[in-house]
Design a protein that fits this description.
With about 300 residues, the protein is α/β, with parallel strands linked by helices. Helices cover about 45% and strands about 15% of the residues. The protein has ten helices and ten strands. It has a four-stranded mixed beta sheet. Strands 4-3-5-6 form a four-stranded parallel beta sheet, sandwiched between helices. Strands 7-8 form a two-stranded antiparallel sheet.
Length: about 300
């Protein structure tokens, strides 16, 4: 598809001449080209659909993400796991639109995030660096019924106090190490079929894609809901001014659970790497065996 934009005109101050004028024109042209790239971008797209399109464009067997365990995932493996796990999540949380993620910044978090996206459920990224009151407040704000977490993560990060607080709040905790018993042969078969058919989620881009919580330095954390369109806009804003290619390796040191200004950056950075073929190295992973029982 081709997009044609309105003609643009440069206004050059009369007092700028010579080399300074050429530099001024160059900057004007650069800004124009960046605006052009963003204006012609498709921000009206579901995150999971963009992941599928990136896989088709760049190759299903391209290694796209790894963590400290040094076991990279390809587009093909990531998407297949997301379909299967997403089907199992949908069965267990049938009437829940929002699902909490309380996981480290590793592959388990990435796969769970896209698994929820594949079935149009909204991940709520809980900040494990916050205190008991803040975490419970976040759960109550979004009215979460279920939080996905890991025994190993809680043990290694010494987060038993937060686990206890969530259980006292009557929040159902799903531990990934134990979740394999909920994944039936039917779930796997349906996940494989969706993978082969490249089934796309049905929610429009204006629907919620993720819920983040600021640090809460001025009180209890407030929920920030971002749509697919919000994150796509942030992604294309970044790619309109920064050049990436398939040989780049992106070291992501921004935890997806801890948004700071601008709020979209941690999640958008994670999504950006999958959408434009940048191999991503996640900075932290303490759950080495979480998915070994699944597949």
């Amino acid at each position: 598809a081709h997009a044609f934009l309105e003609p643009k005109h440069f206004t050059i101050p009369e007092n700028i001449v010579g080399r300074e004028q050429r530099s001024y024109i160059s900057m004007q042209l650069y800004d124009l080209m960046a605006d052009m790239m963003y204006s012609t971008s498709n921000i009206q797209e579901h995150l999971f659909t963009s992941l599928l399109e990136a896989a088709k464009l760049h190759g299903w067997h391209h290694k796209i993400v790894e963590d400290i365990n040094r076991k990279p995932l390809t587009y093909n493996t990531l998407i297949k796991k997301a379909y299967i796990l997403g089907k199992a999540y949908a069965n267990q949380m049938n009437k829940e639109d929002y699902v909490g993620l309380f996981l480290p910044n590793g592959l388990a978090n990435v796969v769970s995030f896209f698994a929820l996206q594949s079935v149009d459920k909204v991940p709520v990224m809980l900040n494990f660096s916050q205190g008991v009151q803040q975490v419970v407040s976040c759960i109550k704000t979004v009215k979460l019924k279920t939080v996905i977490t890991s025994h190993q993560f809680i043990k290694m990060a010494h987060l038993e106090h937060l686990e206890e607080a969530m259980l006292k709040n009557k929040t159902r905790l799903i531990y990934l190490e134990e979740f394999s018993k909920y994944i039936s042969l039917k779930d796997k078969w349906q996940g494989y079929k969706k993978h082969l058919a490249e089934v796309k989620p049905t929610n429009p881009s204006e629907k919620p894609a993720v819920v983040l919580f600021p640090s809460g330095s001025e009180g209890m954390p407030k929920a920030v809901l971002l749509s697919h369109k919000n994150l796509q806009a942030n992604r294309y804003q970044i790619t309109s001014v920064m050049a990436f290619n398939s040989s780049d390796v992106f070291f992501n040191a921004l935890p997806s659970q801890i948004p700071e200004y601008p709020l979209e950056v941690p999640i958008s950075n994670t999504f950006l790497e999958f959408a434009v073929l940048i191999r991503m190295l996640k900075k932290l992973a303490v759950s080495r065996a979480i998915f070994q029982k699944f597949f």
